[in-house]
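HUMAN:
Just now I want nothing more than another pair of eyes on a protein record. I would be glad if you read both lines and explained how they fit together. I have put the entry right below:
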Amino acid sequence: MIELRKDIISSRWVIINDTRDFQLDVPQPMSKEAVGACPFCVGNENLIPSPISCYDKNGAKINVMDKDWHIKVIPNNKPILTIEGNIIRKAEGIYDKMKGVGAHEIFIEAQEHDDSHLYDNKQNLVACILAMQDRINDLRNDTRLEYILIYRNHGAAYGETVTHPHFQLVALPFIPKAVADEISISKKHYEFRERCLFCDVIDQELATKTRIVMETENFVSFIPFASRFPFETWIFPKEHTFDYRVLNDKNKIEDLAEVVIGVTRKLFKALGRNISYTLLLHSYPLKENKMDHFHWHIEVIPRLAKYSGFDLVSGMYVNPTVPEESAKFLREA
């Protein structure tokens, strides 16, 4: 199959071409000897900054000195952006720049140096989801910030330098272009059709079933029609909601954890434990009060294939796998 497909959410064209060779590009993880002492393990607290906050097994905040923590949040000691300072916007000729103000935090997901909870410990992930909401609510009070990214890198191909499972949070003084594009396009769809673009996509996927990976009462995961990467998987709440922070129903939070763990488990089982992936939360901007046209979601993007110069020079993606076949493969894993 050679086919051009348009992603309705980003308006991006993607080339689906399974005639091209698809060779897994899975770097081997570094040995424990090469990595050295893990800074996130208990006993190595001298290697990391002092905690910002800690949470128990139920996701409730506890004293940062409590040794019985389940989630620990620390500042990144090599942050992408720094929390200190004021945003100073300047011009340099025709160019614009501003001070690199923001926040970069790490959520240590467990005391144990063990990634088994990535695919079997739902309680720990539930606690992590609640901890993330708490940190977003706190950072939202900082008027310098516009958007918060939350993501997890797993595997060498995505630059994971510490193998102890952890999420990262980066707070930005602007809205990233990928999110801004989603908001702009979905707003036009809402103004024209008076309904949410993302809800329409969810309804389409649930109706056809061919790209569904996993479905629960409250969430659905599927490989998008115009997926950029092999086995790229999206996770959406079925109910329309624009803000991840208002997910406060215990059953729905457990449902989300079940889907995230289920997708992870399927990827590991189908493609091997050494695969690399990044998991990325798309939520709405901090200073918006309501967005009827936006729908929060999670993108899980494995790094499986080598990319050619065409991808770089054209700004397009060539996916050597067919989304429907990839979804069937994961569904049955």
Q: What stands out?
A: The mean pLDDT is 87.
